[in-house]
Design goal:
The complex is a heterotrimer of chains A (288), B (227) and C (39). Chain A has 288 residues and is mostly helical. Helix content of chain A is 78%, strand content 0%. Classes of the chains: A mainly alpha (288), B mainly alpha (227), C mainly alpha (39).
């Protein structure tokens, strides 16, 4: 386990450098925006990584809450499986209702992937491990989200002349960032006995909030239209290739950062436990 | 089914009676509400035309701050008298307790709003150009949105450090879609542009209320017994 | 364009800052573990 880390680290560094080279040199220059558009190759993968990390945080939080009681655990297993099946079927049955770029197969894959992640986390992480996973993905997710919020305006300024436009994507990312920063603050300020449960509850609330945030800002934007940062529409296949390479590189990087943070937290908790035990067992010492 | 509602009603009546007897919290909150309106009026002093456009935002931000102060108050009293520990030990369902607290807070905040609204109307020379009756569902749904989450997060922050700052810190990000809906709905109604309608915002507020009331009821027991 | 380099630099600055905080906590913890092992 320990030897793998430096090797993976080196590989990731190589991949990131190659991805950077692709972004700056290989990718074709964009027609209207010019070279500034290359920020896209860092802005978008960071956003997707942050969202993936927050999704894992949500799954870990739900798992933590659900596993405290064997009954709810069993019910939750069935619910997750049912949701996965329903997403697969629903994606095909309601094919016409899907937005333009979304295919039934991607809906099905997403449903199965989420269920798969749920069961993987459930199998390989203990109760405490699930809590540490939630903390780790939240922290690293906030880091990546910060990158999105910094690169967004840096892209907007030369292209649109303004730093911020309250457009749908940037604003909903800002709200997501705020929710998760408040999550991290709660984790830091609450008394250690109850932290995992409170944090998990907050994460569930945050997840419930996300679609509402999206819809409210979407409607607000249709009432007060503004320029869209990040552009929509189709993408040149060469650009798509560079985008995906950068995403892969950042995913590997995120994985290593999470792994380090997870190990750090594990060691920290073991040390605290040991210190607490020592204080109890100290000869002649007072048991508090 | 009557047992939980009975408990809810009993807790609610007890809270209201306590509030009425002590009156100190209520009076200081009313004065706070008046101060907020006056300070806002000194800070934003537009003529009648502009006031309609920004009044929605002003009013709801003022309500939000007053609600936060009220919410901090209500749980603080429970904590002082160690009532919370009694609740945790009692066999009463936690939901009933939560509902009683939330409804009590709701009534409390509604009283504050009832005091602040005429003041706002007078200071800003407001009158709605759109369908004014729609302001009623907006006020009810919007206040409930703030209060239901506020009560839940207030309970969550009870045993955290810096408890008073924890509540708004947790509440504000989650309430953003509700806040946006309330402000936009109010502004739409006040401005009264015939091509716009507050209906989408009211439906969104209702959805928000349903989602978070359910969530709070489902998770309150867990949060209460967090240790 | 300078905005492009600023964006890339800012990205790595943020990541490196976070990694430094993690690493510093890790070395502090390692010292504590050594102290505990000595006892």
């Amino acid at each position: 386990m320990k030897k793998a880390f430096p090797i993976l680290g080196l590989l990731t560094a190589v991949l990131l450098s190659y991805a950077l080279y692709e972004a700056l040199v290989v990718a074709p220059q964009e027609q209207t925006m010019g070279d500034v558009q290359r920020i896209f190759y860092y802005h978008v993968p960071s956003a997707w990584t942050a969202f993936l990390l927050f999704a894992i945080n949500f799954l870990a939080s739900v798992l933590y809450l659900v596993r405290r009681n064997p009954q709810t655990d069993r019910i939750a297993n069935w619910v997750v499986m049912a949701l996965a099946v329903l997403t697969c079927i629903g994606g095909y049955v309601f094919r016409s209702a899907l937005p333009k770029d979304v295919y039934p197969s991607s809906v099905a894959t997403t449903g199965i992937a989420i269920a798969g992640l749920y069961f993987l986390i459930r199998k390989y992480f203990s109760e405490q491990g699930t809590d540490i996973l939630a903390l780790t993905t939240a922290e690293v997710g906030v880091v990546f989200c910060t990158v999105v919020l910094v690169t967004g305006p840096l892209w907007a300024r030369p292209v649109w002349g303004i730093w911020w436009t309250w457009d749908l994507r940037l604003t909903s990312t800002l709200v997501l960032w705020l929710i998760y920063v408040s999550y991290l603050v709660l984790r830091r300020f609450s008394s250690s006995g109850e932290t995992p449960v409170l944090a998990a509850a907050l994460a569930v609330f945050g997840a419930l909030d996300v679609p509402l945030v999206y819809f409210s800002i979407w409607f607000f934007r249709t009432q007060h239209p503004q320029p869209v940062i990040g552009g929509g529409g189709s993408i040149d296949p060469r650009m798509l290739h560079v985008l995906l390479i950068n995403w892969l590189a950042f995913l590997c990087f995120a994985f290593l950062v999470c792994w380090s943070r997870y190990r750090l937290e594990r060691i920290q908790r073991d040390v605290e436990e040991t210190q607490a035990l020592e204080a109890l067992l100290e000869p002649g010492g007072q048991v508090r | 089914m009557s047992a939980p509602t009975g408990i809810t009603r009993a807790t609610l009546t007890k809270d209201l009676r306590l509030e009425w007897r002590s009156k100190d919290a209520l009076n200081s909150m009313l004065f706070f509400a008046l101060l907020v309106v006056v300070v806002f009026s000194f800070s934003f002093d537009p003529n009648a035309e502009e006031s309609r456009v920004i009044a929605g935002g002003l009013v709801w931000v003022a309500f939000l701050f007053a609600a936060v102060v009220a919410l901090n108050q209500t749980w603080a009293r429970e904590l002082r008298n160690q009532v919370l520990d009694a609740y945790r030990v009692s066999p009463a369902p936690a939901n009933a307790l939560f509902l009683a607290k939330a409804i009590g807070n709701f009534l409390f905040v509604v009283v504050l709003e009832a005091v602040m609204t005429p003041l706002f109307i007078v200071f800003y020379k407001l009158h709605a150009l759109g369908p004014a009756w729609q302001l009623f569902p907006v006020a009810v749904l919007g206040t409930w949105a703030i209060v239901v989450n506020g009560t839940f997060f207030a309970a969550m922050s009870l045993r955290t450090r810096s408890r008073e700052i924890m509540l708004p810190l947790l509440l504000f990000p989650i309430t953003i879609p509700a806040l946006l809906s309330m402000v936009e709905a109010t502004t739409t109604i006040l401005v009264g542009d015939p091509s716009t309608s507050a209906k989408f915002w009211i439906v969104l507020l209702a959805t928000y209320d349903v989602v978070f009331t359910t969530g709070s009821l489902a998770l309150f027991e867990t949060v209460l017994h967090a240790e | 364009m300078s905005y492009l380099y600023a964006a890339y630099a800012a990205t790595w600055l943020i990541h490196v800052t976070y990694l430094i905080t993690v690493f510093r906590r890790y070395s502090r913890l390692k010292k504590e573990v050594e102290q505990l092992a000595k006892k």
